[in-house]
Amino acid sequence: MELDALNENVDAISTLGARLVLVSPNTIAHNQTVAEQKKLACELFSDPGNTVAARYGLKYTMAADLKALYQQFGVDLEDYNGDASWTLPLPARMIIDTDGIVRYAAINADYTVRPDPAETIAALKTII
Amino acid sequence: MPLQDKLDKHKKDFEAKAPKEALAVMHRATKDLVESGIMARTIKVGDRAPDFVLKNTGNQDVSLVEFTGRGPVILSFYRGRW
Question: Of A44, A54, A57, B64, whose Cβ has the fewest other Cβ atoms within 10 Å?
Answer without folding.
Answer: A54
